[in-house]
Amino acid sequence: VxxxxxxxxxxxxxDALAGLVACNPGLRxxxxxxxxxxxxxxxxxxxVALLSxxxxxxxxxxxxxxxxxxxTGVVAGAVFASPSVGSILAAIRAVAQAGAAGILxxxxxxxxxxxxFGMALExxxxxxxxxxxxxxGDDCAFAKPGKAGRRGICGTVLIHKVAGALAExxxxxxEIEKKVIAAAKVMGTLGLSLSPCSIPGSKPxxxxxxxxxxxxxxxxxxxGVRRMKVLPADKAVETMLKHMTDPSNASHLSxxxxxxxxLVVNNLGGLSCLELGIVAGAAVRCLENRGxxxxxxxVGSFMTALEMAGVSLTLMLVDxxxxxxxxxxxTAMAWPNIVAGPATTQREEVxxxxxxxxxxxxxxxxxxxTARVQQVLQRVCSTLLxxxxxxxxxxxxxxxxxxGHTHARAAQAIQxxxxxxxxxxxxxxxxxxxxxxxxEQMGGSSGVLxxxxxxxxxxxxxxxxxSPAWADAMDAGIKAMQRYGGAAPGDRTMLDSLFAxxxxxxxxxxxxxxxxxxxxxxxxxxxxAAEATRHMEAGAGRASYIHSSRLEQPDPGAxxxxxxxxxxxx
Length: 570
Known about the structure:
alpha/beta, Rossmann fold, Serine Threonine Protein Phosphatase 5, Tetratricopeptide repeat, 2 domains, 6-stranded mixed sheet, EC 2.7.1.29, FAD, cobalt, magnesium
């Protein structure tokens, strides 16, 4: 039996409604019944009240659609079970006693729902209430629907919205009934699923093979029209729309080029939002290609089937009046609050911002130091390429084994950059240009960390020269890495080698210091610090998730940094 996060299996429908009401000040439970009503019932005096409902397990339907501009109340059954006649009757009485000018029951086309709502309606009429019932059957799955007719699925939510907007505007019961029946006739829905669903405490109602998807299944896991191999999202959407609009299918929706529709892309409960976005884009593209105008598109979870990993598409043919009713304001929590306007894949993109022109001297100006810079960079690149396997090996124990590849990629990028142009000799420009190369080409968090270090060091060197400026630049680079990377010395990262070298470079600030001696000491300090990471517990980076006893090697990032410093300062 699949795992579920419930308190008790028997109480899950009540608990879900109680949670919804607890978190929504606009809702109230009806004492002794699984009925939720608008908090402001007196506001419906003189207006038509709208009641809907059905089994639980389709959340946010139906209680999520209660509010000003949508439903007045909802009657819920147990999971996938019709609500009781007694509770439906109690809901009808509650709104009648609040002074409603007529009551419309909006019911999905299932035998149990029709029977129970119908029985309650007859009893309420006997008590003198003005009650009507509209049965919604929007399923386009079956080419030859049986005697039971088309199932009521996600399109019902659009009917709630249309009816709710009319009732809020003061329309009569006759007018609402007429317009809702007309809207339901020009609407169709089709589901597609990758997985079954399971009622809490029970096994899944059916099985789908790893490589199968099912077309046209119902919101309770009832069988669809056919199983097929899993298709890419765009092909799956094409298949769905073709089936929904196929004239040989008795339950099809007639779509002709130039028609305007409202599209609902509904998550059946267990599809990721990422996949839902992909499906939505494919649906808009596919409809546009057929010359259909998508007046509005709604994407989200509107009527689910517990945790079913699937999607349904609903299309309603609309005119200006229907679009206005869809756009009308509502306080219902499950109705999306988005900017009203058509859906299109042709939306103009915001132009990319232009980079500010480089200031100061042209960075390609060649100075007497250019050959020296090339020589040093070539040495750094050769060192990193020679160490590729060693760094990968060190990284296997603590990361994903790609530290050598990442540094080799950086070396190759620098070599290609030097072949394309002579590197600038001015230190600030050189470091800034190297930062750009590494940010674009190196990848991984190392690329960003080196980029941060070099960018901050370059800033620090602007307009400064002399040995102490290099010590300041090193400190500025380390500070930037710490600010964004979160590591500190002793956390077993590349920072350990850099920090040790920086401490030694502080010697450059002493008057009369021998720069060569200080640089040699910095390289030695970096190498010793890299070796010392062997005995440290990782405090940052990916290795920090691994138990320290498994990390018997030095940190690959620290080893790489020590090697780079050694190559630069040779």
